[in-house]
Recover the amino acids of this structure.
């Protein structure tokens, strides 16, 4: 396996997400309710009983880079929300992290997703579909995540850990990986 620099991997990850976003938008999103017409904008992102988005280290770096484009005040607020999420929802890298749910600390009311351009695959695929058969197929999602795993392995020379989004962002902020 040919190694990749983190910079190269981040470019490939962005491209992978763009391709995934285009596929979802072209073939599935038109069957879903538009977020623009939602009566409860952001409810799906802030539903602490629903959100369970896991990411890898490489995705956390990409998100951190995107967050660095925000104002210092917004960065500070999001950092505060990440820490609050860890505590409130008892999130950590230990145990079965897939059983934990949380409200996304990256959603800003009246703004939306603060990392929209680089958001995780589950977030790109999510929409309000009325019928199960209208959803993007799991194999599309799985393929994208397999490619993300490969990028992580080529970059960090180890099998990636999938952790809740706030956990990875906290680890990246503390350089504790």
């Amino acid at each position: 396996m040919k190694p990749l620099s983190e910079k190269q991997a981040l470019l490939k990850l962005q491209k992978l997400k763009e391709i995934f976003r285009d596929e979802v938008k072209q073939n599935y999103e038109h069957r879903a309710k538009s977020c623009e017409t939602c009566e409860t904008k952001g409810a799906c992102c802030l539903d602490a009983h629903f959100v369970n988005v896991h990411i890898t280290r490489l995705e956390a770096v990409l998100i951190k880079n995107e967050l660095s484009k925000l104002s210092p005040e917004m960065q500070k607020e999001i950092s505060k929300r990440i820490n609050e999420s860890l505590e409130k929802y008892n999130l950590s890298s230990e145990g079965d992290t897939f059983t934990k749910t949380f409200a996304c600390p990256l959603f800003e009311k009246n703004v939306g997703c603060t990392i929209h351009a680089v958001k995780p695959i589950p977030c790109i695929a999510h929409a309000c579909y009325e019928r199960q058969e209208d959803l993007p197929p799991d194999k599309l999602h799985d393929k994208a995540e397999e490619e993300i795993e490969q990028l992580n392995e080529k970059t960090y020379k180890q099998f990636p850990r999938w952790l809740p989004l706030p956990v990875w962002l906290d680890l990246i902020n503390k350089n504790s990986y």
User: Anything to note?
Assistant: DSSP finds seven helices and six strands in the chain.
